[in-house]
Amino acid sequence: MPWIQQIEEDAAEGLLARIYSDARRRAGRIWNIIRIQSQNPRQLRAGLGLYSAVMKTDSALQPRLRETLAVVVSRANECHY
Prior knowledge:
Number of helices: 4
Shape: globular
Structural class: mainly alpha
Number of domains: 1
């Protein structure tokens, strides 16, 4: 099984601490998909920005359809996210 070193919430500093704080405020917890990217907070921030741009901004696709497509692709890829 692959293993990726993660920075725990109580050890996070600077940008990562802010990202963790925002994530906890949004979801009530820090999901593993965030933790596994913790070694490079700038890349994590960029990835979250891309996700937000794709899933949260105006689009020809309604938000519910975007979420449905994300779930279908995740299932097809056997991904929990």
